[in-house]
Amino acid sequence: MNEVQIERDSKESYGKPQWDAQERHYKEMLKEAQSLWNKQQDDFSLLRECISWMHNLSNLYEEQGESTKAYYYLVTPHNWVVDKLHDPALSKDDSDRTLNILGMTFTPLYEYSLKQECCNTCRQNLEEQREWFEQTMKQLH
To answer: How far is Cα 115 from Cα 80, in angstroms, rounded to an integer?
Structure first.
């Protein structure tokens, strides 16, 4: 590639979303965070980091109109947290931390469902989860 081509490509891409580069970066960072979290499942900061990278990917796909991928990157971390809440070995303190993190996953998932079409069963399930979550958070605080 010569200087003229580089300059033309640079001008053409200026101000335009760099989705491919962002996607690669987010996926690399997620892979690294997941690798660490898989080794340290009790490290809540690593769990939050994984969730953040998943949400970045969701936002990226939503911007591109890829609702199925966007939804996947919201529901997957939410399911991680729900699974963690059902772990019988979870201490009371860790359960409380996990409930706080649940807000980090449920709220964006619920808000996304309000923007996108979903079936009545899914909508009902999310409404029930929202009611449970709100009640649980009142009891927690």
So the answer is: 23
